[in-house]
């Protein structure tokens, strides 16, 4: 979530920030960036090539930087910016929540298929 200059009467936990479209676009950008990044790297890890996840991660990080304007997509970085007061508490908390949600979703989707041995082909067609 990119930080913008604040007016002199800025309060770190301002409820006015919740009404800002820019604030919610930033939260959505964090969620989507983390979802796309984790999903692409997990998808590339299914490849037999050892470098595929690293190459996919680098390419998707570059693409996200160009298209979404550079979301952090990393909760550790967001917490560091929060601790150094580069982000407000509200932006930091919702940014970490969005990033964790975005990272959890692509992880949870393939798991049932893996546990059940589902290969994408119905048993009647094998």
UniProtKB/TrEMBL annotation:
Stretches that traverse the bilayer: 23-45
Record's subcellular location: Membrane
Membrane topology classification: Multi-pass membrane protein
Gene Ontology terms: cellular component: plasma membrane
Record Gene3D superfamilies: Glycerol uptake facilitator protein (1.20.1080.10)
Keyword DNA-binding: no
Pfam families: MIP
Protein name: Uncharacterized protein
Alphabetized UniProt keyword annotations: Membrane, Transmembrane, Transmembrane helix, Transport
Highest taxon above the source species: Eukaryota
Similarity comment: family membership: Belongs to the MIP/aquaporin (TC 1.A.8) family.
Keyword Transmembrane helix: yes
GO MF annotation terms: water channel activity
Organism: Junco hyemalis
Entry-linked InterPro entries: Aquaporin-like, Aquaporin_transptr, MIP, MIP_CS
């Amino acid at each position: 979530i990119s930080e913008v200059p604040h007016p002199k009467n800025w309060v770190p936990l301002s409820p006015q920030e919740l009404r800002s479209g820019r604030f919610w676009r930033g939260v959505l950008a964090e969620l989507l960036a983390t979802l796309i990044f984790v999903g692409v790297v997990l998808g590339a890890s299914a490849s037999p090539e050892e470098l595929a996840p690293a190459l996919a991660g680098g390419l998707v990080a570059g693409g996200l930087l160009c298209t979404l304007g550079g979301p952090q997509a990393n909760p550790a970085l967001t917490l560091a910016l929060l601790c150094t007061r580069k982000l407000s508490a509200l932006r930091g908390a919702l940014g970490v929540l969005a990033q964790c949600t975005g990272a959890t979703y692509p992880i949870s989707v393939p798991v049932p298929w893996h546990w059940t041995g589902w290969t994408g082909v119905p048993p009647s067609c094998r």
